[in-house]
Amino acid sequence: MSLLNLAPVIPVVVIEDVETAVPMARALVAGGLPAIEVTLRTAGALEAIARIAAEVPDATVGAGTVRTAADIAAAVAAGATFLVSPGTTPALLEAMAGSGVPYLPGATTVSEVLALAERGLKELKFFPAEAAGGVPYLKSLAGPLPDVRFCPTGGVRPDTAASYLALPNVGCVGGTWLTPADALASGDWARVEKLAAEAAALR
Ligand code: 3PG
């Protein structure tokens, strides 16, 4: 399974209230975005992954902000079907490779990308996308490294997503704009579904 081909946009979500996880996931799927990255940044993140995995069969739920081998073990035990890390260390890479699920290791620099490509990893998260150079940076990478594809995340917004997606070395983008904190807090699932539908139509 190529994680970059699941949808044009992977919603990166921060779950403050675990009760919002299932209706949020249903709204994202209804809008056309089935791949959901739940960041391990809140106390309820693992429970949110477990609930989405159990109750929203059409969602492909993964864990983001994975930083340690313990994160990976806990995420996979909860039901995460993919992993995303903001950057990559040798220990993290070993743990992701041993997890049994697909993963997107994070990379920013040319040398980091080369080190992962050397290991056969050619689908990567590019983070923090906008701060690290955005579209022009990725365009530059496509020259020497045409076989490596990215999911740029970090600072990507609805008005910039299309320019990333137009690049030959971008498979999808990630972002938090699909699930604004106030929409989650107020249960505005129609808004989440609308944002997802607009994003799904980007390509
Ligand atoms: C990430 O972990 O990928 C970023 O926090 C995404 O956040 P943003 O879309 O709000 O920049």
UniProtKB/TrEMBL annotation:
Keywords, ordered alphabetically: Carbohydrate metabolism, Lyase, Schiff base
Family, per entry: Belongs to the KHG/KDPG aldolase family.
UniProt name for this protein: 2-dehydro-3-deoxy-phosphogluconate aldolase
Associated pathway: Carbohydrate acid metabolism; 2-dehydro-3-deoxy-D-gluconate degradation; D-glyceraldehyde 3-phosphate and pyruvate from 2-dehydro-3-deoxy-D-gluconate: step 2/2
Cell cycle among keywords: no
Transmembrane segments: none
Superkingdom to which the source organism belongs: Bacteria
Record field: catalytic activity: 2-dehydro-3-deoxy-6-phospho-D-gluconate = D-glyceraldehyde 3-phosphate + pyruvate
Enzyme Commission code(s) on record: 4.1.2.14
Xref: PANTHER family: 2-DEHYDRO-3-DEOXY-6-PHOSPHOGALACTONATE ALDOLASE-RELATED, 2-KETO-3-DEOXY-6-PHOSPHOGLUCONATE ALDOLASE
Annotated Pfam families: Aldolase
Molecular function, one GO term: 2-dehydro-3-deoxy-phosphogluconate aldolase activity
Subunit structure, as described in the record: Homotrimer.
The UniProt record lists the keyword DNA repair: no
